[in-house]
Design brief:
- The chain is mostly helical and about 350 residues long.
- The chain has one domain.
- About 55% of the residues lie in helices and about 5% in strands.
- It is built from 11 helices and 3 strands.
- Strands 1-3-2 form a 3-stranded mixed beta sheet.
- The longest helix is centred in the middle third of the chain and has 34 residues.
- The two termini are about 15 Å apart.
- It is found in: Cell inner membrane.
- Its main location: membrane.
């Protein structure tokens, strides 16, 4: 997504004031929200407008000392994701805007489909169940007077190829980065080779458990936007921290009910499909527990980053000032989840 006309994110951006003032007057889209009104995902649009005016927009990963914290629990993440979903789907109306660079239009398409894909995945699961239920029984003698039966075509090779493709797309890059960090000896900043390895494995397991929940949240968000429901711009609540099980039940009971109904209907209509749906439906059944449990602070040494082992001066200063103002004792390490990298826009 990067290059000379790539996007930038609204935080941690270094922008020429003159370029921004002359190029980035955002239009108010005609009509009512969610597709009209103010543009919510404005930073991608501003980057496209800068590129249209001839300015370079790129990410400079060589600059240290720039940080951004993500949401602390799944509910906060889903709330922010709802706004991003509406903002990205608004970009449908900007795809044919005059003068935009081709790459800027492509970035818009990527952002749009990053949310539509959840709806497509959900539809694929439903279609798979319907196809299995409505499929006619195999006919081993489709023509009269055949001496030998005609067996259905074996799809094992295609299924294996699909599994390898999914592994290569979703999991292989993580282990490729791990291998690169070992070969370049950067792995020490992540707690060593073994700790980094188990961090990657744990991350794969956790994201696999959380993915069905995000499927439901994003599908709900897309359907809300397409049905004309405006999500607005809810404020980000920093420091929400850990969620109780009761809060998890309130937020995830509808996901649990959806997973239970899906399993029950599949078991009734096509029991052979139940094992294939378990990786999706089981996390949905335990959605309240996952929502609550995943919000707990880390109590182990996995997911260590170089910025935790060697805090940047700006982080140390922040923690010292915060401790002095609040009267709280200074923690020895910065909060996990911070990452390096600053962005140049309109260089």
């Amino acid at each position: 997504m990067q290059g000379a006309t790539g996007p930038f994110w609204g935080h941690n951006a270094i922008v020429r004031v003159q370029a921004f003032a002359e190029s980035c007057g955002l239009p108010e889209l005609q009509g009512k929200p969610p597709f009209g009104g103010h543009i919510l995902s404005h930073d991608y649009v501003e980057a496209a407008l800068l590129a249209r005016a001839g300015w370079k927009v790129e990410v400079d990963a060589s600059i240290d000392g720039s940080f951004e914290e993500g949401p602390e629990n799944l509910l906060s993440f889903a709330k922010r994701d709802r706004r991003w979903c509406q903002g990205n789907l608004q970009h449908i109306r900007l795809l044919l805007a005059p003068g935009l660079a081709p790459w800027s239009r492509f970035v818009f398409v990527l952002g749009i489909f990053s949310y539509l894909v959840s709806l497509l995945w959900f539809g694929f699961l439903v279609a798979s169940v319907i196809a299995a239920v409505t499929a006619p029984p195999p006919d081993y003698f489709p023509e009269p007077h055949l001496l030998f039966p005609v067996f259905p075509s074996d799809r094992t090779k295609e299924m294996i190829a699909l599994m390898i493709g999914i592994f290569g797309l979703l999991i292989m890059p993580k282990f490729a980065i791990l291998t690169e960090s070992v070969l370049t000896r950067r792995v020490g900043g992540f707690g060593g080779a073994m700790r980094a390895f188990w961090s990657v494995v744990t991350e794969v397991v956790l994201t696999s458990l959380i993915a069905p929940l995000m499927l439901m949240y994003q599908t709900k968000a897309v359907l809300q936007v397409l049905s004309g429901r405006d999500g607005g711009w809810p404020s980000s609540q920093r420091g929400e921290g850990q969620l109780t099980l009761v809060q998890g039940i309130r937020a995830g009971l509808w996901i649990t009910a959806t997973g239970a109904v899906a399993l029950a209907v599949t078991a009734w209509l096509s029991p052979d499909l139940v094992p294939w749906l378990l990786p999706v439906c089981l996390p949905m059944l335990f959605a309240p527990v996952l929502i609550s449990w995943s919000s707990r602070p880390l109590t182990h040494k996995l997911f260590i980053t170089p910025d935790e082992l060697t805090p940047a001066p700006v982080v140390r200063s922040y923690r010292e000032i915060h401790a002095r103002w609040s009267g709280a004792p200074q923690a020895p390490l910065p909060q996990p989840g911070l990452g390096r990298g600053a962005q140049h826009a309109a260089a």
